[in-house]
Amino acid sequence: MLKRTARRGGVAILMAATMLSNAAFADTNGQPTRAAIAADTPGPVYHKEMFTQFAEHLGNGIYGGLWVGPDSTIPNTNGFRNDVVGALRDLSVPVIRWPGGCFADEYHWRDGIGPQSERPTRINTHWGGVTEPNTVGTHEFFELTRQVGAEAYVAGNVGNGSPAEMAEWVEYITSPAGTLAEERAANGHPEPWDMAYFGVGNELWGCGGNMRPEYAADLTRRYSTFVKVPEGTKVMKIAAGANVDDYNWTETMMKVAAPMLDGVSLHYYVHPAGGWPPRAPAVGFDENGWADALERAWHMDELVTKHSAIMDKYDPEKRLFLAVDEWGSWYAQDPGTTPGFLRQQNTLRDALIAAINLDIFAKHADRVRMSAIAQMVNVLQAMILTDGDRMVLTPTYHVFEMYKPWQDATVLPIEIDTPTYSSGEYELPAVSGSAVRAKDGTMHVALSNADATEENTVTIALNGAKASRATGRILTGDRIDAHNTFDALQTVRPMPFRGARVNGDRLTVTLPAKSVVVLELN
Q1: How many domains does the chain have?
Q2: Which residue of 126, 252, 324, 464 pairs with 39 in a disulfide if CB–CB is 3.0 to 4.6 A?
Q3: Are residues 28 and 55 located together in one domain of the fold?
Q4: Do 193 and 62 share a domain, yes or no?
Q5: Considering 388, 407, 426, which residue would you say is the last residue of a domain?
Q6: Does the active-site annotation cover 203?
Q7: CB-facing half-sphere around the CA of 48: CA atoms within 13 A
Q8: Helix axes of 247-257 and 287-314: crossing angle, nearest 10 degrees
């Protein structure tokens, strides 16, 4: 049902620097949406790093999901399964964050080098209490980035590691000469690797040490000092930033440690039904569960706005970037799966969560220049699920594939005046969207309709642009919890979309209920 109501805290009609009047339409069901794209006043670049992926030693995210070993009957290259790597290459994954997450807070890099048969077995104290064989370590991770064609974002251990250990890991990875470079060569890789990003710790407010912000900021200054790379190379250092709305954490980190950094992170997960641990089901939810999750997804806009404002106080030139390097949905894990493995099914609801967040990041692309959904394979809001030799692509994967033209494109500001969609106590904007001009000059427009039952007609003024043809694809399903399984791989997949009409500087799109649409204008 669509209705115009007062918005709850944290929910706003966006995507614009300024909003159109909410009084423009009557309070009626089926109320349309109006929008305007400022093609004549382009915004910042939508950095490809917004599509960073996150791979943690958690559940079957690494072992079974990515790594099967060179002797596996599952087709692989140097131990990494060909089907998963191929699917990630098709996404043009720009960066992979590894080895965590909380796992990074107790990870000692020397456990993961040298002959695999001689590496120690540890207990993964954060995720399930299972044994960690350290089969996948530094060399294997950089082999993965090579196969995928991605850059490396390595998360360092500030939790129970020392500055010396961190400094030596960076040297082992990046140095062309010296004892650690010789050790790397003896382990099979004479040349140094390129490491684009380095995380100075992870979640220092929680599993990374339960620190106060003042102490964490001081430690960040100290550890950052010893993250050194050879002359002529560059690594971007990212601080362990705030948990959700801990604005004091960002304030303190910026005040104390900003000169030592290139970025500050932010973590936020959607937990329908609230509370901890997450208890909402990943499938089988009703419309209230659908609306609850999507309303919480919109909270990202408020979080990014307020954290960015704090960063602006200390960095008005926007030298530092905000890295939302953990985000996505987090439900009760699937029944029958190993406790602590965080495996959950991925539905059409998650596709809408992904689209809403990617649109929000477009609005804030001047400050948000990296984001990493959690996680890549088999964990939380995954791109891919595997079971033995089988693989299935999730609705979230398809959204990321549909948004590929956004990588390094130029944001075209879009103003959207949309009615409110509500179910029970939950309410949110019915329509979300973003627009870009790709590197080849083509304009792309993304629109999603959160209404679970009613279509919405969107009329868009193309200010400073004209088009004669609109083509595109749609992602939707017959149910709000529609999803793909190993026995039904294509229940939710992009299909051709024919509900858009363009006439010069005006675009009209009829969005079916519960859908994501991406258009190309020619």
Answers
A1: 2
A2: 464
A3: no
A4: yes
A5: 407
A6: yes
A7: 16
A8: 30
The token pair at 189 is 């890789």
Say if residue 206's pLDDT is above 80: yes
d(CA 344, CA 89): 23
Structure tokens at 305: 């706005």
The catalytically annotated residue of 56, 326, 401, 454 is 326
* pLDDT (0 to 100) of residue 30: 66
Pair 416, 357 in one domain: no
Give the type of residue at 71: D
Range of the domain at 200: 45-407
pLDDT-derived band of residue 38, with 50, 70 and 90 as boundaries? very high
Residues 218 and 306 in one domain: yes
Confidence band for 23, pLDDT divided at 50, 70 and 90 = very low
**pLDDT above 60 (res 283):** yes
Helix (H) or strand (E) holding 242, with range, is strand 236-243
Average pLDDT over residues 43-60: 98
Q: How far is CA 520 from CA 266, 369, 402, 407, 443, in A?
A: 32, 24, 11, 15, 6
Query: Which entry of 203, 401, 427, 454 is annotated as an active-site residue?
Result: 203
326 is catalytic: yes
Q: Count CB-CB contacts under 10 A for residue 309.
A: 12
- Residue 334 CB partners (closer than 8 Å, separation 6+): 282, 343, 344, 345
Q: Is 287 helix (H, G, I), strand (E, B) or coil?
A: helix
Q: Which two tokens stand for residue 271?
A: 């937990």
Q: Are residues 317 and 420 in the same domain?
A: no
Q: Cα(177)–Cα(171) distance, rounded to whole angstroms?
A: 9
Q: What CATH number does residue 164 fall under?
A: 3.20.20.80
> How far is 95 from 255, CA to CA, in rounded Å?
28
